[in-house]
Design brief:
Low-confidence stretches: none
Largest sheet: 4 strands, antiparallel
Mean pLDDT: 88
Distance between the termini: 54 Å
Order of helices and strands: EEEEEEEEE
CATH topology of the largest domain: Immunoglobulin-like
Strand order of the largest sheet: 6-5-8-9
Structural class: mainly beta
Length: 105
């Protein structure tokens, strides 16, 4: 049995695997940026444009914010009220999305 790869319709991204085809080589897909704590809140550093961000309140069961990183503000900052959140960050391809759970006290 010969192993093989299955690509998405674009022929670039490998299905079921964190790799993509570039310059004839399989390369690992980078992760989208994850939030880091800074004084007064959180920051998404060095986000490529356009990056989509969704903030979910896990206790309240609702989406509390959705926004896109702009070219003018690649280091977007935000603050959160006390609670438990999941921050979804989806940078442009070839990046893989990230989901970070944050507990704010």
């Amino acid at each position: 049995m010969t192993p093989y790869l299955i690509f998405d319709p674009s022929g670039i991204y490998v299905i079921g695997c964190g790799h993509y085809l570039a310059d004839g080589e399989l390369k690992p897909r980078p992760l989208s940026p994850a939030p880091v704590e800074v004084p007064g809140g959180y920051q998404l550093p060095n986000c490529p444009y356009p990056t989509a961000v969704i903030i979910h309140d896990l206790i309240g069961g609702e989406t509390v914010a959705e926004f896109a990183i702009t070219a003018e503000d690649p280091d977007s900052e935000f603050s959160l009220e006390p609670g438990t959140y999941e921050i979804e960050v989806t940078a442009p391809l070839p990046a893989l999305p990230t989901a970070t759970r944050i507990e704010v006290t």
